[in-house]
Design a protein that fits this description.
The chain is α/β, with parallel strands linked by helices. The chain has helices spanning 9-21, 26-29, 41-55, 62-72, 80-90, 97-126, 131-146, 155-169, 204-216, 231-240, 246-251, 259-270, 284-294, 312-329, 361-365; strands spanning 193-198, 222-226, 274-278, 298-302, 333-338, 368-373, 385-393, 399-406, 411-414. 44% of the residues lie in helices and 12% in strands. The longest helix has 30 residues, at 97-126.
């Protein structure tokens, strides 16, 4: 049995030598390799010295790197100047240096995998009570280090990316992203967090399901994570939104005149690609695990304020983590959230950003903040009229649109302009 861990010493030497031959090498590999990725410890120390010079915008060659390592007190540990100059002489042409860097990274990933396996095996032998949760955290640690996600771009890449955007825009229709359920909303773009907030009973979940349907119906792979409603309740709502009375879908007693509509809707849902995660105790690591396994095109989370948390900072960390998840997997994430009803004299006023319950980090992290609001009667019962408000947008205007909530089908429909209520607020009345 081979007990030598995976490694590629020749590739390591090639990468280090190349950094001293050409000033164009480090900008190419700095986002690929970390010092800990090198199997030989001395190689990692040499690379750390090269990064220190690069960070100060100083040239990296055998002489400057030897001086840097001497100042750090590690020159003799890596083999002295002789070893540094030897590595510089080993470097071939630097054109393929990124390929060699990726080989080094791959071997580091395999060593990390072996180490993770040993740690997980120990958890099993020790019979740790929360062993499964700890094992999942160990696996989670691997993803950020070994997931390919470019964060450094050169001039050529930036220009090429913008030209691609212009090429798409010149066609007149932007088909990138996930469709939204209403005509006044643009497509949802990857790496962005969209917050949908509302008071209790305003219809956040119904709205979330409409986003879910619109995305899945466009052949996008969807994921819906719920910590509030059961799979059965959500399925009943999904079917009802096709035009079947909700109470019939809940009871399963579908009247004859709706059977054809039901079969058509079930066939439609059956053709979608999605995962519905029903877990009232799910946390951010659990969501991340599901996303890593399924790789959806978009994610909907219902809802933020049902997460179990002890302190406010825990919830804030969850929001930041969800934003990071959207960026890491380059998917749009729709996060449903509760609005604060602290004003008991008027517990359901037209919402504003200050009413985002418990945390301002939602406004800070979100690309868009949308409110769904249904004015209440004297008994605080919401009516059919609803307003969809764009309270924050990093890429467009702030506005609102009138919707109609059809409670029988638990869905929102756009209102024709001719049906806008006389009491429609003016722009100055919207507290955005």
């Amino acid at each position: 049995m081979n007990n030598v861990p995976p490694q590629a010493l020749e590739a390591e030497e090639t990468v280090l030598g190349a950094t001293m031959v050409s000033g164009n090498v480090l900008p190419v590999i700095v986002d690929v390799l970390e010092p800990r990725d090198f199997y030989r410890e001395s190689h990692g120390k040499i690379y750390r010295g090269a990064l220190a010079l690069y960070a100060r915008s100083e040239p990296v060659d055998a002489i400057t790197l030897s001086d840097e390592l001497e100042q750090q007190g590690t020159l003799e540990e890596v083999g002295g100047k002789v070893r540094v100059f030897e590595l510089a002489s080993l470097a071939p042409a630097t054109a393929n240096v990124k390929h060699y860097a990726e080989i080094v990274k791959e071997k580091a990933g395999l060593r990390d995998l072996i180490d993770a396996g040993k740690r997980i095996e120990k958890l099993g032998w020790d019979g740790t009570e929360d062993g499964l949760e700890q094992a999942d955290l160990i696996v989670q640690e691997l993803a950020p280090r070994h997931t390919s996600h470019t964060t450094v771009y050169d001039a050529e890449g930036v220009v090429a990316g913008f030209r691609e955007r212009v090429a798409i825009g010149s066609k007149g229709v932007d088909n990138s992203g996930v469709p939204a359920p209403f005509s006044f909303l643009p497509r949802l773009k990857g790496s962005r967090l969209y917050v949908v907030a509302g008071y209790t009973a305003d219809g956040k979940t119904a709205l979330g399901l409409q986003f879910f349907s619109a995305g899945c119906d466009s052949s996008s792979r969807g994921m819906l994570v719920t910590n509030e409603m059961s799979e059965g309740d959500l399925t009943a709502r999904l079917v009802a939104q096709a035009g079947i009375p909700h109470h019939q879908c809940e009871s399963g007693q579908i009247e004859a005149q709706h059977k054809e509509t039901m079969e058509a809707r079930l066939a439609q849902i059956g053709g979608w690609e999605f995962r519905l995660i029903d877990d009232e105790g799910i946390d951010l690591p659990g969501i991340r695990r599901q996303v890593r396994l399924y790789r959806p095109d978009f994610l909907i989370i219902d809802h933020l304020h049902r997460f179990k948390w002890k302190e406010r900072r825990d919830l804030e960390a969850t929001v930041v983590g969800i934003t990071d998840l959207a960026k890491e997997y380059e998917i749009p994430v729709i996060l449903l959230a509760q609005l604060n009803r602290s004003n008991w004299q008027d517990p359901f006023p037209r919402p504003s950003l200050v009413r985002l319950r418990e945390t301002a980090v939602l406004e800070q992290e979100a690309w868009n903040v949308w409110f769904i609001w249904r004015p209440r009667d004297s008994n605080y019962e919401p009516g059919e009229h609803a307003e969809f408000m764009v309270a924050k947008s990093r890429s467009g205007p702030l506005f609102f649109e009138n919707l109609e909530f059809q409670s029988q089908y638990v869905r929102f429909d756009e209102k024709p302009k001719s049906m806008v209520p006389v009491t429609e607020p003016g722009k100055d009345d919207i507290p955005f």
